[in-house]
Amino acid sequence: MTTKLDPFAAAPSLMKTWMGTSLAVAGSLEASLVELVKIRASQINACANCINMHTVEARAKGETEQRIYLLSAWREAPCYTDRERAALGWTEALTRLSEGHTHETAYDALKAEFSEEEQVKLTLMINVINGWNRLAVGFGLWLDMAPAKAAA
Fold first, then answer.
1. pTM for the predicted model, two decimal places
2. Helix axes 104-113, 82-95, angle to 10 degrees
3. What is the maximal distance between C-alpha atoms in the chain?
4. Mean pLDDT across the stretch 117-143?
5. Mind telling me which InterPro entries this protein's record contains (predicted)?
């Protein structure tokens, strides 16, 4: 994959704001849930950069290999909590909006597990990762996690 454009160089002020918003939203919910949402949306959007990045981050935060590997089949896997299932269902419903507005069942599950404030936070998180997916896929971005971790 060849990077077409570096959005951080092209629009540094806006990208700094976008990054700040992303971090604030991600910090508003439990880290394990946020990483599952990021990975699942990135799988749906076929964003290799974000799948790579967030699986590394999930592992670093204690996520198991089993739960990462089973994420694309979460409905059939017994290792996710009801809260995680609700978040994953909502993630899929919003990420796939263009396929039709059939999100009522997902919203019912969401309401059962998340407060209204948490529903907004999760919806913002889903929007943020979908935005990052579009930036990464659109501009051919790739962050090699090993050098990035070493630099941090």
1. 0.92
2. 140
3. 44
4. 96
5. AhpD-like, AhpD_core, CMD-like
Tokens of 122: 């999760």
Residue with tokens 């209204």: 116
How many domains in the chain? 1
CATH number of the domain to which 146 belongs? 1.20.1290.10
The angle subtended at Cα 42 by Cα 80 and Cα 141, nearest 5°, is 150
Q: Look-up: residue for tokens 């630099």?
A: 151
Distance (Å, rounded) from C-alpha 1 to C-alpha 26? 27
The answer to whether position 79 is within a domain reads yes
Q: Which domain holds residue 94?
A: 29-151
Each residue of 50-89: pLDDT tens digit?
999 999 999 999 999 999 999 999 999 999 999 999 999 9
Q: 140 — alpha (psi -120 to 50), left (phi > 0) or beta?
A: left
In the block, residue with structure tokens 């930036």: 135
